[in-house]
Amino acid sequence: MIPNMISREEALPLMEAFYTLQGEGYHQGKAAYFIRLAGCDVGCPWCDVKESWIESPDQSKKINDLVELAKANPARLVVITGGEPTLYPLGRLTDALRKEGFRTHIETSGAHPLTGTWDWICLSPKKFKPPTEDVVNRADELKVIIYNQSDFQWAESYAARVSASCKLYLQPEWGRATKLLPSLVDYIKAHPKWELSLQIHKYIQVP
Question: Residue 131: CA atoms inside 13 Å, Cβ hemisphere, count?
Fold first, then answer.
């Protein structure tokens, strides 16, 4: 069940929060505090955080408490992820974070309208529930997960829709990375507008 938007003005369902290095995409290697919200209605079968799909009542965390957790770390970069974070109204959270000097990034499938104020929007569209046109238009980064060879053509369909300044990344699905990497390398060499994204946090074994 998708939570009622009004009830989320003061608190959000926190699955986990952790300080680590951004492992993917344009900001790879930067220290960042991750806030992973529970709840997802997209349901990718290869999702590596399926435990984030279901929200439980004891996960509710007040906005001010989330900000205090972030402030305990030296970096002033927060990444809101999920689950699917666009399920919730995020305006009060981003306002509070920015007031404390944080840059706000979001990683989303774009399945629902985007709320909040963002310094960086990473769109990772999914076939199971397509993104809204607004998120496609506003994306700073397009990160397409490659699972099958047919996904290259699907990635191109979104590359044609995002803005000219949007950064383009192809990322192998982790469970098939070894098998898929040669194809990704060849594809990017033939289509150099794309760049390769690897989940380096998994290679170096950090959260």
Answer: 28
170 DSSP assignment: E
Distance set, CA 70 to CA 33, 37, 73, 74, 128 (Å) = 6, 14, 6, 9, 32
Angle, CA 39 vertex, CA 34 and CA 45 arms, to 5°: 95
pLDDT in tens, 25-53: 999 999 999 999 999 988 877 777 777 78
- Ordered by start, the domain boundaries in the chain are 6-203
Q: Are strands 167-172 and 141-146 parallel, antiparallel or unpaired?
A: parallel
Provide the token pair at 8: 């989320």
Tokens found for residue 147:
């699972």
**CATH 1.20.210.10 for the 6-203 domain, yes or no:** no
* Distance from C-alpha of 75 to C-alpha of 73, rounded to nearest angstrom: 6
Cross-strand bridge partners of residue 37: 14
Give the whole-angstrom CA distance, residue 38 versus residue 92.
18
CA distance 132 to 29: 29
Query: If phi over 0 gives left and psi between -120 and 50 gives alpha, with beta otherwise, what is residue 147?
Result: alpha
Convert the pLDDT of each residue in 128-183 to its tens digit: 899 999 999 999 999 999 999 999 999 999 999 999 999 999 999 999 999 999 99
